[in-house]
Structures are given as structure tokens and as C-alpha cells.
Amino acid sequence: MNDAGDYKSAIEEILYGDASKMKSMTDERDELLEAALAGVETQCRNDAWNATADNGNYAGAYDLIEETISYYEGLKSDYSGVAYYISEMEGFREDIKNNHLSYFATEAEKLANKGDLDALIDFCNTQIQYFGDDQNAKEIVEKNRANCVVHETMNLQSSGDLKGTVNYVYDHIAEGDYNLYMIELYENAANSLGVVTYAGNVNQLPQTGASGYVFDWTDQYTLSESDLYSLDLDELRIALYEIYARHGRTFISTIQQYFDGKSWYTNRNLPNIQFDASTELNDIERANAALIIDYMKRNGYMCKLN
């Protein structure tokens, strides 16, 4: 026997054919039956792994597993020992799912790094359906969607499309999880186009309070819009950037010199995408950064060009 059909034919014969009448050969019959049931399992495992190797055909792998479980379920009333193989197949399905999750993460990251948001969304939509409410799968989608938006911003900036950079960041900053590097690229492009009104010289930046912060508590307490009303653009920028500076992020603009002058700041040489805000910042800090950026957009401190 070398395929599932042969094993299933043997099982049919043992359970329902002449072999089932061999009362004096119960042990031999059960031994043959176990071998055939194990053969079905092994063949399913081999075929499923081969399917995943065929351009990530996890749909085919899941279909094979479900088909095999269904087949075993149909035998339960005639042979109770089949419950073991059902359990094995259910465990194997989890193995395939874990392998699928790794494949999903790897391929999503490749698309994100290209900055192709449409292709990434299409790919994620075809994969996420197999994971239900799995939080790890949801995090893969969210993280790579944000990374994709950041990389597309980088693509626009490196191609010299300043207007495209400004408009893309304005439209997609939320999808980019309010990534500060997008803000930096926005500011560089907007400044080159003459549409930014913040202080270009570090010596012109406003002095902060005795603590050296605009807000020295944004890592512990949530900002409200009322906290921002009295701030001008330069103060808003410092309030935003200091959330990241508190964790030693490195900056690509002259604001780096501003933070170098703060006693509490330690430069960890982590610029742009090397600084992972999803792990470096806490939930309060991420919420505060998002609030400041949204406030800047709604109050004309960020713009979209026609």
C-alpha cells in the first residue's frame, strides 16, 4: 500500500469485508487495521507538508487534514480506536497552523518592505481567514500594514517625490501607526517645498521648563487636547519628539542637537525604522504621540498639497 486510497480500501475490507468475519483472528485483524489507519495518517501528513511547500498552499493542506478527520469520524461507530488518530490529526492541524503563521509573517514582511500596500492587503486577506481570532495573526497584519506604509513613504522620499511624500504621510500616518520616521520625512519634504513654519535653527527652539521637558509625564498619563491648546508648532514638535527621546531614539533633523543638550537624554543610535515604537513605547506614550499628530493635522500644522 502506497497511497491513502490503498489504505482506505484495506480498512474497508477489514471492517466490513470477509476479514471482519475472522473471529478467531481478532488480534491479527486489529493489527492490520491499526497499520492501515496509521498509513492514512502518514499519507495525509506527507501530502499536507508537500502542499505547503507548493507556493504556500496551506488551503490545500487544511483541506487534506479536514478530509482525513472526517474520514476517521465516519469509522468511530465501528472501531473506537480511531479516536487516537482523530486526536493526532487535530494536533497535526495545529502544527500546520503554526508553520502557516511563520510563513504568513515572513511573506507579509517581504511585501511590507516593498511598500506595496495593495499587494499586502490582498495577501493578508487570503491568509487571515484561516486563523480566526488568533491574536498573533492579527498582530502580523497590523504590524506589516504599518511597516508597509512607512516603506512606501521611504520609497517616495528616495525617488525625490517631495509632494508625493507630503501627501502620502498626511493621508496614511494613522495606517503607519503614527510612525515618527514618517513625520521626519514629511517635515524634510515639506521644508524643502517651503511649507513648514517651524524653527529650522536649534537655537530658535523654545526653552522648556525646569525639568527639560514640555511634558515630563507623557510616559505615565494620557494627554488631552486641552493640554495642547497653548502650544505653538515648535512646542508641539518637541512634545511629540520628547516621547521618543525619553527612550534614546536618534533623530535625523536639527532637533537632534536640541535633545543632545538635555541632561536626561541618552542617544542610543536608533534612528528611523531601527527604533521600534511598538516595543519601545508603552500604550500611554503611543496614544499621546497619536493625539499630538492628529491635533497637528486638524489644526493646520500638517497639510496636504494640491
Overall radius of gyration: 30 Å
Shape verdict: elongated
* Helix proportion: 55-70%
**How many independent structural domains?**
2
Number of strands: 0
> How can the largest sheet be summarized?
none
**Could you tell me the mean pLDDT?**
89
Oligomer: single chain
**Span between termini:** 70 Å
Number of helical regions: 12
Proportion of β residues? under 5%
Care to describe what's here?
The chain is 62% helix and 0% strand. With 306 residues, the chain is mainly α. The longest helix has 33 residues, at 82-114. The chain is built from twelve helices and no strands.
Would you spell out the secondary-structure blueprint of this structure?
Elements (H helix, E strand, L loop, with lengths): L3 H13 L9 H28 L4 H16 L8 H33 L2 H12 L6 H24 L3 H11 L7 H13 L40 H13 L9 H6 L16 H4 L2 H16 L8
Helix pairs in contact: 1-2, 2-3, 2-4, 3-4, 4-5, 4-6, 5-6, 6-7, 6-8, 7-8, 9-12
Summed up, what is this model?
The chain has 306 residues and is mainly alpha-helical. It has helices at 4-16, 26-53, 58-73, 82-114, 117-128, 135-158, 162-172, 180-192, 233-245, 255-260, 277-280, 283-298.
Can you tag this structure with a few keywords?
306 residues, 2 domains
